[in-house]
Amino acid sequence: MTFDARTIAKDFPILDRTIRDGKRLVYLDSGATSQKPNVVIDAESDFYRLHNAAVHRGAHQLAEEATDAYEGARSIVAKFLNAEVDEIIFTKSATESLNLVAYAMGNAQLGNRFHLKAGDSIVVTEMEHHANLIPWQQLAARTGATLKWFGVTAEGRLDLSTLDLMIDENTKVVALTHQSNVLGTINPLDAITRRAHSVGAVVVLDACQSVPHMKVDVKALDIDFLAFSGHKAVGPTGVGIFWGRAELLAELPPFLTGGSMIENVTMESATWAAAPRKFEAGVPNMAQAVGLGAALTYLTKIGMENIHRHELELTRYLLNGLSEIANLRIIGPTTTDNRGGVISFTLGDIHPHDLGQFLDSQGIAVRTGHHCAWPLTRKLGVPATTRASVYLYNTIEDLDALISGVHGAQKYFGR
Amino acid sequence: MQLDNLYQEVILDHYKNPQHKKLSPTYDAQVHHINPSCGDEITLNVTLDGDLVKDVSWDGVGCSISQASVSILTDLLIGKNLAGAQEIADSFMHLMQSKGTEKGDEELLEDAVALAGVSQYPARIKCALLGWMAFKDASVQALAKQD
Asked: Model-level pTM?
């Protein structure tokens, strides 16, 4: 199938609307959340219209249909990640997924491989989103473990020169992002996973910015846990994925307890169902899970390689275009080597909020601020940046609009 | 252009030439406020003389709206008594919540009425209020010190 972003954009009804008095919507904020194609909107609403019932319970046809749809979505996610079906856990968000694994480790008693104590270390990086930093800060604080982190170089790459010192025999967890939501940097995982596994640590990957944009194969990456959110992958809000290796999920204690996640319950105690149920207490977000299934089916049909290639082209074009603008500084790698389609920049004395506001007046949606990665933006000496992020429905025309919008802002605020 | 309602000349003037943007060496109270949604930060000093706002000085980073707003605040409030400063602050906060339906009392708010357009942009109201919330906090602390 030939890839045509203009045709793809027709699947997304919101891209037809206008902004601020009739301006064409130029949506360059997919790194925050992606827009939704009709097939996803329909799948979610059809679930409510036709199949709604509590899954895994009830002796009636609707309950069967709801369970089939929900478990069908789990199979789609598993196939998408090259994982086993029972390794896929539905959460409400990637943030919940990361908290799940951090809290679950905190629940591990002495003797469990995930048990943490003073002297152990948790390793993160300086480019983490708050969602993959604070849960680990908190886990360290609760258990007495030490939090350590890889620094970021001026070019926006991980400084792995201290790899063997950073990850040592005391390291239990290495948690890092696959692709930075600020810099666009795609982190090299091979050396990190090899070192982590050689000391018996597990690797937790925040894949929010990678899974929607490129082929992510959990087996090929040789990681242990992964989190991503549905809404960044043309899926609904309110659904995230937590993936873990089967043998690790078997040993990991539960996080939330309650209905559905049990094997047996007495007044005194309870035992747990096997994964994935062990980690899905309560009636789940069924319609959203089904919507996510439709989203990943849609992306698969278009082809993740095609999407990735298209985004690389857009990224190259935008990096070139932006680099010709006076006083514009790109925050992150300036080439497309190991880099995805989120591009942050500063523009001289024009504050990102003001630039974002001007672009909005032209119908262009970008993100401004610290992008929930405050330690990183502080380290880079930029309190805030403007961030454009591209996806499968964006075109060169969108990028030309942004470039001309940036010129317009310079003129407007230079008056 | 509708954007001109937001970015009036007087705002851009204050942004380019911020008033009292140099922290005084002495003060009765110093506060540090942050806008966590965008990373804007301000440090603000208040010096009182009885119930007179003797000096307000500040330093910080932020967008033109937040920087101009605090610059205008210093021009307006220095030399007022606390009751007068409070009346101005209340009137300004009311204006910010007016969703574009009010122009603001020019007698009372002077240059600050230029920020009336901010009230049409919900995401920017916090920018405009950053310095005002810092002043409110600092003046309460400075007053408490007098007791």
From this structure: 0.94
